Amino acid sequence: METILIIEDDSSMLRGLTDNFAYAGYNVLTASDGEKGLNAALDAKPDLILLDIMLPKINGYEICRLIRKEKLDMPIIMLTAKGEESDIILGLNLGADDYVTKPFSIKELLARAAAFLRRRKQKEKDSYKFGDFVLDISARKLTKKNEEIELSPKEFKLLEFFLKKQGKALTRDEILNAVWGYNSFTGHRSIDRFVTTLRNKIESGPHSPVFIHTLREIGYKFESI
Amino acid sequence: METILIIEDDSSMLRGLTDNFAYAGYNVLTASDGEKGLNAALDAKPDLILLDIMLPKINGYEICRLIRKEKLDMPIIMLTAKGEESDIILGLNLGADDYVTKPFSIKELLARAAAFLRRRKQKEKDSYKFGDFVLDISARKLTKKNEEIELSPKEFKLLEFFLKKQGKALTRDEILNAVWGYNSFTGHRSIDRFVTTLRNKIESGPHSPVFIHTLREIGYKFESI
DNA sequence: CAAAACCGTAACAAATCGGTAACAAGCTCC
DNA sequence: GGAGCTTGTTACCGATTTGTTACGGTTTTG
Question: Which of A52, A148, B56, B190 could form a disulfide with A8 if both were Cys (CB 3.0 to 4.6 A apart)?
Answer without folding.
Answer: A52
